[in-house]
Amino acid sequence: MQFRHLAICIILCSVILTTGLGCKGLSNEEKRAIRTVRLQYWTVFGNTEQLNARAAEYMRRHPFVKIDIRKVQYSEFEDRFINALADDVGPDIISVNIRELKKYAPRLSEMPPATRVATTYIKGQYAQERVVNFQTNLLPSKNFIRGNYVSAVANGIITNNTTYGLPLSVDTMALFYNKDLLDQAGIPLPPNTWTEFAEQSTQATRQNTAGDIVQAGSTMGAGEGVENAPDMLMLLLMQNGITPIRGNRVQFTENMREAKADHPTFLTLRFYTDFANDTKEVYSWNTELGGAFDAFTSNRAVFYPGFSYELATIKARAPQMNLGVTQMPQLTPERPINVASFFIESVVKKSPNQIYAWDFVRFLNSNKNLLAYNTASNTISPLRAHIQTQKENPLLEPFIAQILYAKNWYTGTNISATQTALRDLIDTFPEPAATPSLKVKQDQTLIINTAKKIQQTL
Questions:
Q1: Same domain for 273 and 303?
Q2: Mean pLDDT to the nearest integer, 38-49
Q3: Segment 68-99, tens digit of pLDDT
Q4: Distance CA 367, CA 308 (A)
Q5: Distance between CA atoms of 379 and 191, rounded to whole angstroms?
Q6: pLDDT on residue 9
Q7: Pairing between strand 343-347 and 166-167?
Q8: Is residue 3 part of a domain?
């Protein structure tokens, strides 16, 4: 009798194990909805540890979704992306530099107003069955973006009334400085204006008996070797009242053919390049010191204008530096201007999984996830609601304080060619001419030709 009862128990257990869990009773739509979805996500500067943490949470909610996140070098991204698309093995989600959005837009999917996705769970203790529910998730509308994201984002990601992606973070330029070197120069506080910056850079510069700079006050004045030279020039132009590029037109050449030596573009270039001109009073940088970033992180330069994303590298290369950060000096403090830089997370048009790709982008951009991501990454949230909270970070505070008046200056298809043209302009502008009038004509031609090169990319 005992053997008979044992046999019956074994049979019952077998029935439960083999028939209790499955997709029995699911409609064809439900079965299709929970087929495995594999998302390939290529990021450039994203924090992969934090992205993977968010992905794990998303996959817990949608267990049939698998997300693979990989970091691709910026210098390699375009070639790898184009080759992957040609072989039909491209990613579903990519990070796109806002300054390259126009170039990549034809290969990107337009952000939908909403996504309809499935969630699933197991119901029942013994006779288990899978339950599938559908939910509709709204993505940020254009009005929501304009009202809740900082202006640089709202003005950048909405192109021709179309949105191609959402940012995880946003950046501005500030002034890094070496506190110890500033103290040694007898300077108690960093500059607020460019006049103060010029004075302090000169005061902090050290030269040897041969007249060579051994400690640079500034890291400005040249194109080559100064990592952020194009952004610095555009920033100074904007602070001087010039919109460098408006729409599809270069603007800094306005009235250039009739220009005199006091044209705002001339004045801006002269101000910037004087820092590397050994005949000028503000001479405080020389390219023989090497790259600006290397000079700063090796205690051979006092000031370095840069973005917050450079902060981690500065601390890694110069862990003992007594590092300070202050807001970028302004020409007119009551009308401050800064430059913005950021990437957006976009969905590739050829992706077979656009719905879940967009839903994951939406998930990353929730209020909660954006704050958690940026807090852990020491980056700046693009949401206005997070500004006050994030200002509590003393090293990020100067960057965050400028975020409301930061602007995008480039909207073309080739930022690399544009940056090269601007570096060449900076390095060629100081070349002398026989007379003042010939110098003006020489500068007119140089600037007009530079503008033509940039215009070809718009």
A1: yes
A2: 98
A3: 999 999 999 999 999 999 999 999 999 999 99
A4: 21
A5: 24
A6: 41
A7: antiparallel
A8: no
Collapse the DSSP code of 357 into the 3-class scheme (helix H, G, I; strand E, B; otherwise coil) and give the result: helix
pTM: 0.91
Q: List C-alpha distances in Å: 119 to 30, 39, 61, 135, 356.
A: 10, 17, 7, 8, 12
Does residue 373 lie in a domain region?
Answer: yes
| Beta pairing, strands 249-250 & 343-347 | unpaired
Q: Does residue 278 fall inside a structural domain?
A: yes
Is the domain of 137 the same as that of 29? yes
- Taking CA atoms, 418 is separated from 322, 447, 457, in Å, by 35, 13, 7
Domain identity same for 292 and 309: yes
CA 237 distance to own-chain centroid: 21
Q: What is the pLDDT of residue 121?
A: 79
Helices 436-455 and 264-274, axial angle in degrees (round to 10): 100
Distance CA 232, CA 223 (A): 10
- Cα dihedral 100/103/106/108 (nearest 10): -20
d(C-alpha 183, C-alpha 185), whole Å:
5
Residues 185 and 256 reside in one and the same domain = yes
Q: How many domains is the chain built from?
A: 2
CB 95 within 8 A of CB 70: no
Domain span at 213: 173-341+411-455
CB 420 within 8 A of CB 404: no
pLDDT at residue 37 tops 80? yes
Percent of the chain with pLDDT over 90: 88
Say if CB 304 and CB 178 are below 8 A apart: no
Instruction: Kindly state whether residues 86 and 207 are assigned to the same domain.
Output: no
Whose tokens are 């093995």? That residue is 89
- List residues bridging with 174 in a β-sheet: 306, 327
pLDDT for residue 29 is more than 90: no
> Same structural domain for residues 417 and 284?
yes
Counts of helices then strands in the chain (DSSP H, E): 19, 18
Same domain, 371 and 421: no
What CA–CA distance (Å, rounded) separates 100 from 410?
Answer: 9
Residue 421's pLDDT is: 99
Indicate whether 13 belongs to any domain.
Answer: no
- CATH code of the domain containing 439: 3.40.190.10
Alpha helix ranges (H) inside 205-287 = 229-239, 264-274
Q: Are 312 and 376 in contact (CB under 8 A)?
A: no
pLDDT at 247: 86
The Cα 242–Cα 238 span in angstroms is 5
Exposure string of 105-119, with b = 16+ CB inside 10 Å and e = fewer, is bebbbbbbeebebbe
Asked if residue 322 and residue 190 are part of one domain, the reply reads yes
